[in-house]
Amino acid sequence: MLSDLRFSEDNVRVRRDLLVKFVVNLIEGSMGYVGGNGYLVLLNVV
Fold first, then answer.
1. Which residues contact 45 (CB under 8 A, 6 or more apart)?
2. pTM above the 0.85 mark?
3. I need a labelling partner for 41 at 20 to 30 A (CA). Which of 8, 23, 28, 29 fits?
4. Where are the domains positioned within the chain?
5. What is the pLDDT of residues 4-38, one digit of tens each?
């Protein structure tokens, strides 16, 4: 049971990492001029 819980937590973490990468790519692609400020906003949102 504990191993299943840990596995699901890893899945959530991986999916969140993928989502963050997707959002970062989206920000860089559509609002590249924002630069570092985009990352600060992203960190605040996440």
1. none
2. no
3. 8
4. 2-45
5. 666 678 888 888 888 888 888 877 776 555 555 65
